[in-house]
Model the fold of this input.
Amino acid sequence: MRIGVDSGGTFTDIVIDSADGVVLRKVPSTPDDPARAILAALDSLTPDEVIHGSTVATNALLERQLARAAFVTNRGFVDLLDIGRQRRPAIYDLHPDPVPALIPGADRFEISGRLGPGGEILEEIDDEELVRLGELIGAQGFEAVAVGLLHSTEQGAHEQRVRELLAVTGIPVIISREVAAEPREWERFTTACASACLTPVMERYLQRLAAGLSPARLKLMDSAGAAVPWQRLSCRPVRTILSGPAGGVVAAAARSGSGAAIALDMGGTSTDVTLVGGDQTVARNRRSIIGGVPLSVPLLDVHTVGAGGGSLAWVDAGGALRVGPRSAGADPGPAAYGRGGVGATVTDAHLVLGRLPEDLQLGATLSLDLGAAREAVSTIARQLHMTIEQTAAGIIEVVDAEMERAIRRVSQERGVDPRGMAMVCFGGAGGLHAVSLARSCGMGQIRLPAAAGVLSAIGMLEAPWGEELEEVLLETIDSGFDERLQVMEQQLASVARGRIKEAGGDDEQARIEMTLRARHAGQSHDMEYSPGASAEEGFRELYQQRYGYRMPERDVEAVAIRVSATLAPAGELQAPAEIQGPATTTRVIVEAGAEAITVPRVHHGSISGSETLEGPALVISSTTTLWLPEGSRLRADGDGTLIIDPGTP
Done:
């Protein structure tokens, strides 16, 4: 028995894969302690393995609910965390509020010792000074230490020595070169500080969860789409910042069809949008900003907006209707949940319009209260001097516009035309918005998989076990570089395989992948690519493809190498069975100001591969609801995926 668990802001999604088939569960999340909902839901089960997508690190960083950590750096650089970069996130804000560093100035310490460019030792570490510093840190109640020294990615002896001498404190000591293969000091230091502040938080959470699930093996999704033994990530928590969305991206890539597609995951709190390739590859980057803190770690290129089923509607100072980013969350949730929520949400708007039937039970347990939803929406309607139905339609229109911008952000703004592409739509609320979004972006097809509302948890069961290592190079690509690169790849691959073997995996079956980050000499930013037979030519071809020209007179500099060993999960996940039942009818308001009309209400599992369903219609799935407006049509393929032609209004 293998179980995938995705802890969301509103619901915790659980997929149980055993010899008896696939079973789905959806339970309310417990945001104050996500482990409580998980352990309660799995109390009667004895799984062999649990793969978990966690938001603990993300939420702790956003809410600044962090452990107290110290920061140790070179003398004269203690203020680098405050100085940061010259970039201004809000360029027209004349009085921007600075984002405070994770570690305040009083908790930062300077030490002797200095490396120069290339790792040249300019001044040795003072061991006695570090012994005294260790005593000071140990006496002040710190829970972790971050160490960030200049040029440590090129020569790690000094950071290693600092860690050895501070180990007497008995608390985790995080060195920057192991956290981020990043030559830039500020990004590397902030990543190390985030890791130090999060490590005690994640260790406590994961130890408690692992003990509660014992003897099951616990794995955690990392931000790059791999499932890793929890012990490996408890001391590298910054690699779990996109842990939850990563599972959905893995599953969406496997269901994207033959061409590039947009993965759209609309849950209760937010919507995640990603570009996936027809070869099941996923766009990646290595820089993100979470809560104003820059992090430099490998992660899937997911763009998130605060638009979900629980997003709250409000009227701004200019009298305009707005939706999100604040959310009703799991407690109290939308007004329709009957748990004390009074704010109007996207879910309430759909219930008012009939696109969520009043008798529907979310997650097979949660009943909906139409009266409470109408009362919540009426509060906004009175401010706008509109009818309740017009306001509900306006809420849907506004949240659609927010998600459309997100789709264009990962496509058009990156040189990819979304017209004609497919959308892989999932998440509990995705099906209600899929057709309107596809139409507005000119997309040619929508793919709604079986059990779409828990696809992220399914993706966790389909994710490979991955071990990844990076090393900074900062050397010119010359005639002998390809041979040296091959040797480095073999060395790092051996270490990655060893980690899999150490944790009980079959390292001989692991697939090795190597990528290189490179740039023209003198440039600040690099590109990651698979170097092939010639690292230099591979870079020049990619540069020409991306920017339209070459610079043959400029040398190419290798910045860093990344090697990953991935082991596919044992066995193949069966396609979840969708609910079946006789077709009925329901009343839906199609347009603002119009009367409700009667439309077919069809169960997902009852749609056969030989029939075509035309809109307007409502399709009820086990974990989501699909609104099929007039002009659109769908059919089902062999594994229960609904193939939707969005058509035109």
